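QA checklist item 7 of 12: single-chain prediction sanity check.
[x] sequence parsed
[x] length recorded as 181
[x] structure emitted
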Amino acid sequence: MRADARRNADALTDAAKAVFATDGVDAPAKLIADRAGVGVGTLYRRFPQRSDLVVAVFQRAVESTAAAADELAAAHAPDEALALWLQRFTEFVATKRGLAAALHSGDPAFEALPDYFLARLGGALGGLLDAAADAGTIRPDVDAQQLLHAVADLCHGAPTIEQSQLLVGLLVDGLRYRATA
């Protein structure tokens, strides 16, 4: 992809993320294009279907969240890296509420996303869990996929991101119970 086309695609994805967060995934294309500083035609050339844009926004968020695991692991003790990553994942879940309905709409464009989500984020979380369990700072019987679902369930039941983060903090404290260190 040419550099200008890449910039436009990035600007559109960033703009769509912001617009989806405030106005939902059905927000007008013009609003997204205007926020990105491009024309509507550019949006439709890069993302011919609304689902293409939704997938791009979702995948970028998944990749960013997954990449944070390595960054946090390099900078913090294993249990702290885990706790910080789970807080980041909490933000991911809380800000993707509007996308959840679209992703579960039955649109074939979204069929591969749950497996993609679990593979990327489950893998990232699994590495953090293994490191913390090996360090003896969390209990060793925690499964990454189950923990992802537990955090998502906590987030969907909480009215605000702050409440979600509080609940996830309590969950992390529970992971430390019966640690071997």
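[x] summary fact logged: DSSP finds nine helices and no strands in the chain.
[ ] second reviewer sign-off
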